[in-house]
Structures are given as C-alpha cells and as structure tokens.
Write a structure and sequence with these properties.
The structure holds 2 protein chains of 2 kinds. Chain A has 18 helices and 26 strands. Chain A is α+β, with helices and mostly antiparallel strands. Chain A folds into 4 domains: about 220 residues, Nucleotidyltransferase, domain 5; about 80 residues, Actin, Chain A, domain 4 (Alpha-Beta Complex); about 110 residues, Substrate Binding Domain Of DNAk, Chain A, domain 1; about 80 residues, Substrate Binding Domain Of Dnak, Chain:A, Domain 2 (Up-down Bundle), CATH 1.20.1270.10. In chain A, strands 1, 2, 3, 4, 10 and 11 form a 6-stranded mixed sheet that branches. In chain A, strands 17-12-13-14-18 form a 5-stranded mixed sheet. In chain A, a hairpin with a 4-residue loop joins strand 12 and strand 13. In chain A, helix 4 crosses helix 5, helix 6 crosses helix 12 and helix 15 packs parallel to helix 17. Chain B is elongated. The chains are: A alpha+beta, B mainly alpha. Chains A and B meet through helix 1, helix 12, strand 18, strand 21 and strand 22 of A and helix 1, strand 1, helix 4 and helix 5 of B. Strand 21 of chain A pairs antiparallel with strand 1 of chain B, so a sheet runs across the interface.
Chain lengths: ~650, ~250
Amino acid sequence: MPEDRATERVIGIDLGTTNSLVAYMEGDKPVVIPGVDGSNLVPSIVALDVAPPDAAASGRTVTVGNSARRALIETPERAVYSVKRLMGRGLEDVQDELKLFPFHLADDIQPGEVLRIRLGEMQFTPSEISAYILRQLKRNAERYFGAAVTKAVITVPAYFNDSQRQATRDAGRMAGLDVLRLVNEPTAAALAYGLDRAKEGIIAVYDFGGGTFDVSILKLNDGIFEVVATNGDTHLGGDDIDNLLLAVALDEIRNEHGVDLRLQPDAIQALRKAVIEAKIALSTEPSAKFDIELPDGDRYQREIPREVYEQLIAPVLARTAAPCRQAMADAGVTPGQIEELVLVGGSTRIPAVRALVDEIFQLSARGKQPHTELNPDEVVALGAAVQASILAGSSTTTDELLLLDVTPLSLGIEALGGVVARIIQRNSTIPASATEHFTTGVDGQTNVAIHVLQGERELATDCRSLARFDLKGIPPMQAGLPRIEVKFLIDANGILQVSAREQRSGIEAQIEVKPTYGLTDEQVETMILDSFDHAETDFEARQLIEARQEAETILIAVNKAPSHSAWQLISETEKAAIHVARLHLEKVKCESDLKAIRDAVTSLDHATRNFAEKMMDAAVSGAMRGKTMQSASDDMAAANPAEIHAPHAFARAEFE
Amino acid sequence: MRLRLLILLTRIALKMTSVVTTSAPAACWACSVALDASPLLCAACGKVQPAAEIDYFRAFGLPRRLTLDLAALEREFHRLSRRLHPDRFARATAEEQQWSLAATALLNDAYRTLRDPIQRTEYLLKLEGFEIGEEFAGKNKSAKRQPPADLLEEVFELNMQLEEMRMNRKMGESDPALHSELTAVSLRFESELAKLDSGLAEKGAAWDASSAAGDDAARAAAAKDMAAQLDRRRYLRNLVRDVNEALTTDKES
C-alpha cells in the first residue's frame, strides 16, 4: 500500500485573488502546469454561461479563467472576480468591499449567514465559486498527467483567520480534492526559494498580491523552515490600487463630460481594464496614457506621469509598513538581522513598492538586494508543489525539509464582562493547544455556552467571532461542582478543533460547533460539484467526453466568428489557417483519439488567438460606447465604486 | 439571550498538579522497547506514541530544572519535530495521524513555555502546586489587584499622576514636566524589572541545586521566593504597560 501511495501525485495550488496556478514537483524541481491555452496563470474569474432556452437547470455551464474574461465585459451580471475577498466572511464584514467591487449578492442574506453571490439566475457561495476555479486547475493537472488527481495542497494568505481557512478547505472538497494541507503563502514562497538545504539564517518574505498582503519572518536551519512571526492585511492588494485609479478616472469623466459611468457596469469593467494596463505600464515606463472613447463620442485622454501615480498610491503602499514592523518586533529582530528578503506577488513589480521595502528592511544600505529570481506570480504555487512533495514523500530533495508555521492571530474565549481571555497567543507554532476548565453557575445547569474568538483586541465585540460552542449533557449537579475540561487545538492547517469532557462524572460533554460564518458538513456535501460524481467513473472516458465538450465549445465560437466585426480586422492568411484548423478539429472530434482532439483544439486556439484579441478590444470599446449597455435600472449600480472619492485629479494629458 | 448564558459560565482555575499527571506508557506500542528520553517518540523504531498526559519537561526528556541550555533545547525541538510533525504522517493511518497531531501540539506548547525563562519558572511552580498566573491574581479579574505593600504609596501617587495626565488630555493640554516625570517612573520600574529577572535566575539556580541535593526545605524556600517575585514582577509589568500607554497617547495628542 505505501508504495502505491507514494506514486500518487499531490498537486500544489495557489488559489489567488487575481490569478490561480497549479504546480507539481517534477523530479527535484517544482514546475507550473499550464492550462489548455498554454498560459500558466488561470485568472480567478468565473462566469455562468448564458444557457440556451431549452437547457435544463442542471445543464448549466461555468467558464473559468481567460475564457471568462470576456464575460466580465459582455455579461457582467453573470461573472465574478476577486471572490477570495469574500471567503469566510459575513455580510457586515464586506460592506467596504461591496462599495469597491461589483459583487452581486443575494438580497435575502441574513447577518451571520454565509454569503451568496448572484450569477444570472443562480446563486453561489464564495466557496462554490472558488471550487470552480479549483476544478479547472485540477482538470489542467489531469490533462497534463493523463491521470486522475485527487490530492492537493492549497495556499492561503498567512493572515487568513479560521473561517477563511475553513472556507478554502470546503472549496477544495467541493472540487473533489482531498486537501492534505493549507499552507501559508509567504511560507510557501520561502520553501520555493529555500530548496537548498544549506541556507541558514533569518529571512523575511514580503508578499503583496492582488488582494492580500502578508509578511513573514522565518528562521532557516538545516532544512527546517521555522516561521517566527507573521502579520498582514487580508484586504490590501493591487486591487486597491486599481480601485483608486478607477475612482479618479470616473470622477474626472463625470466632471468634465457629464457622464456618470458608475451606473454602467460594462463600461466600468472596460475602464478597469484600461486602468490595470496603465498600472502595469507604469512599472516600466515613465508615464502611461489613457485614451478612451466615451458613450457620447468624446474622448477621455490623460497622461499619468509616474511621479503623480506614485503620490496617488503612496497611502496604499504605506499600509504595508506597519505589519512589517510589527512582525519584526514580534520576532524580536531588527531590520539589520534580516539576511535575505523575498518578494512575492504581482504588486511587488511596482518600483515604489520596492523602494518602500528597501527602506523598511534597510536593504541597499546594507548592500543587499531582494530576491526576485523566481517569477513573483508563480513562486507561491511552486512552494505549494514543494510542500505537496514533502507530504507525498515523493522526492528525495524534499525528504529533509520541514515547515514549522505559526497561527497569525491569538485565540481567545469570551469571559465575564465581554472581555477576551487569550488562550493561544499569535505567532505560536502550530499545531498548538490550550486546555481550559469550566464549571456551571447555577444548580442543575446542564448546558454551558462558550464563545471562541480570534484577534488581538481586549473586547470580544472587537475580535472576530469564530464559533459558539454549546457543551451539552452536563449531569445536573450543584453549581460549581462540574469540572469541564475543554481542549482547543489549532492544527497544522491553522484550523481550530475543540473537544470537551466533564471530569467528575467522566461523561464526554457533547459539543455542537457552529462556525460563525461557515458551512456545515451537510451543506458542503450538497455543494460538491458535479465533477466529483464523474471521478468515480472511468477516467479515460471522462477525459474523452471533456475533450469533446471543449472541442464543441470552441467550434461554436469559431463558427460564429465571421459574423463578428472583428473578423474584418484579421488577414486572409489567418482566416485560411483558422478554416483548416476548424475542419481538422471537426473531423477528429468524432473519433476516440484523446490526444488528437486535444492537439486539434490547441492548434485551433492558436490560430484564433489574434482574432480573439481583436474581439476583446472591440468588446471594450463597444462597452464604452454603450452598445451593450445594461439598463440603468439594473440594481448592480449599487455595487459600483460610487463611494470612493478621488484624492486628486490626474494631470491633463498633452496629446499632440 | 445567548449571551446571558455566558454569565453562568465561570472559568475556573485548578491547581496544575491535579491536572498534569505523568502517566506515560512505559513501552512503545509498536516495538515494545522501553521508552526512555521523550515518551512522545520511540527511540528504537521511530514510531509516534499515543497521546499521554506528560509534563513539558518530560516531553523533552528533561528533569524539572530551571537552568536550561537553550541551544540544546532548540536542537532537540528540531530533532523531535522532524520525527513527530503531521507532515511526516500524511500517508500514515488515521490513528497515527491523530497521535502525531497531539504529540506535535504538546511538543510546540512545551518548547514555547520552556524557552522563555519566566514562563518556564511559572510553569514549574504550577507543577509544584503553587498558584501562579493571572487567574490567581484575584477572584475577580476586573477587580484592581493589591499592590505589594512597599509600593503602596508610590502606586497611589502614580495613579494620581496618570489621572492628571488624562484630565490634561481631555482639555487638549499636555504638561511636559508631568510627562518627563512619568517617563522617569517608567524607566525606574523597568530597571527594577530587570533586577527581578536576574534575581529569579539566581533563585532558579538555587532551586536546581537543592533539588539535585535532595534538600527539600531549601527547595521549598526557593520556590516560595520565586512565586512571590513572580507576583511582584507581574504587578510591575502591568504598571509599566499602563504608564507607557498613557505616555504614548499623551505624546500623540
């Protein structure tokens, strides 16, 4: 048996706010597994396809990744991105998020209930949306291996709390994955860099991604990666920079052109795309230009010099400084003791971020350079693959590696007067445990309620409520006589487990655990994606069916292509190449050669790549001209960034 | 009215001696070889052992001593972690996974406590039956604790000054003389804390020596001394924290 298990592949997944990736240990090196389109990054976008009128409800199809990108602009009410921001959170937690992101939540969510997102006529929990992304990654891996994959390591921001971790684990289960471990993203990055066992000393990881910020301080010693402190902000990332730029642009368009694009979800998405492109350009260019056609035919033209941009985003970047200093203080180290610094996450490409990091950790002053050798978008997935290999015991390279991570937040219970009695301190190495003893306050009392919290504040109302436990079935006794021992244990995933027993009677007290913003096991069962059922059936047959479906989808799109305006924009040679590839795919699709179908899909995909880009551009400008404009009565307007106010305007562009 | 139920709930503190027992099995479940150093792991066959209620010193195979070689403790922590951690049991039976989780949690809790001299002393005194720690500082946690007798007058004065500072802040004022006076108080208490710490280390060495010599009377006297010093230390530390907090807000306003 163990020999069999050793050969079973365990994949490493980076489930990101903006992009997700799957990686795997190939020999002694972790590699990212590309998707059908050849891209390593799967954008964390999920869209519900427009169902044909005759389709049954069960026949819904969901598109994930690059192919869902277009839906963001064409059918924004059926698409969702950055769902990671909603994982494990309640309605009252996400009010700020709702102002900034076009999340369409169900109207009837009660406080304390798990969120539900509307996509067209259906509703999904954040875990279900994430499960669709995970399923796509799982399929990409299966396609790559030509074999079923059922086990995975998934990364989470180090500063994720218990509910956010549970929601991530639930998503894995829904996608048909046995989640062997949740690994903290900065720690995973350190693993990816530290395969060389000889490394020793204190390192810091600065992880500034699309939606989250983490910083971790680690001690490396003979293959042991011991996290000594971690800190962060689970709602701080490149998204915040995009929103800021977007708000400035929207304000200016309203003030100068009298058009309020905030009421037009598709136009906002198109503008967001332009803003992100400008942001990316500003990492390498001294300035970026906007030139956008507005619904009234006017143009919104701006030139943003990098200086102005850096002033604008400085407050966002500055929010990463305090967590860095706190982490160093908690670790008991000064910047001078940090020997190496690793940069992770797409936002660390911004020169102003690098300058800030250099200042905080006094790098250039000490003649040091941050580590950026590994692609900051991929390094977390690569580390997840290393951890997967450690767990699978599948590579001698990882045999001697061991990760000792910590819990990012203190765990406490509500005591008299609503104060929090801390029972496990933040930055404790996990697994960690604490035992507490309770008794009753009135004669014959048979129940005791325990409120578990996570956070650093003194009052329970200021901390994050994790769960309320009812200790039931306490034998009726005089007040103060029962002695109930409750054991709190944070496991290696950073997730809390609780057990209890009444010591005087020896009766095991019954515990009812109700996570404050979590799904029950039964609920998770009902949300397991259909794909899971298929996992039981013949893998080969399933692969063939999926490949044919993939072929069908691309053929339908290609057959519609000549009627699209963008068709006129490509050359005759390209058209001929598409025609040949299409005929070939139609032929092999009916046969049973899996590889032939896949190759044909890939070549048709390649042949149409330029056309797809032209179509995308057309969709963007179309949205701007209001061609696919939704009616203004659409209630999504409420979810638009009407609330942020631009700090100051961009300089007027000087177009010649 | 869920919250009201909490009022019926009382956290009770028990003497650690009644909780911590040292009933670890004597031999490995897998190979039956007697367990010697750490009862968490069989030195002979490397198997993780079922959860046993052992104290933190036993977890590291150490005698109950207060003087510790921290570098050796860290080495042992790493060595045991390599063998016990749940990552090493991802492919083992559910039972062994559970044991690994429990054993690693215990090892981590033990390392966290033993590597810190104050926590180590508090823990050992609890094992010896002393009532130590926040939960014993008063029947009601929110009630003001009694200051040590020799500090009564000074603490009274200090509280007056803190109150004055708060009043000033309310009026939007700051008194530089008061600020520097309190800064001096904070520094003085900090240096007394440092003195207490070195005093505790000395007493710890005395405790170790009398334990080794089997001198029960000297051992008990050292323990009693340490317990008193720990109480004083806790009181002073809270005081310093309050003063520093007040100073920080005063500076900001």
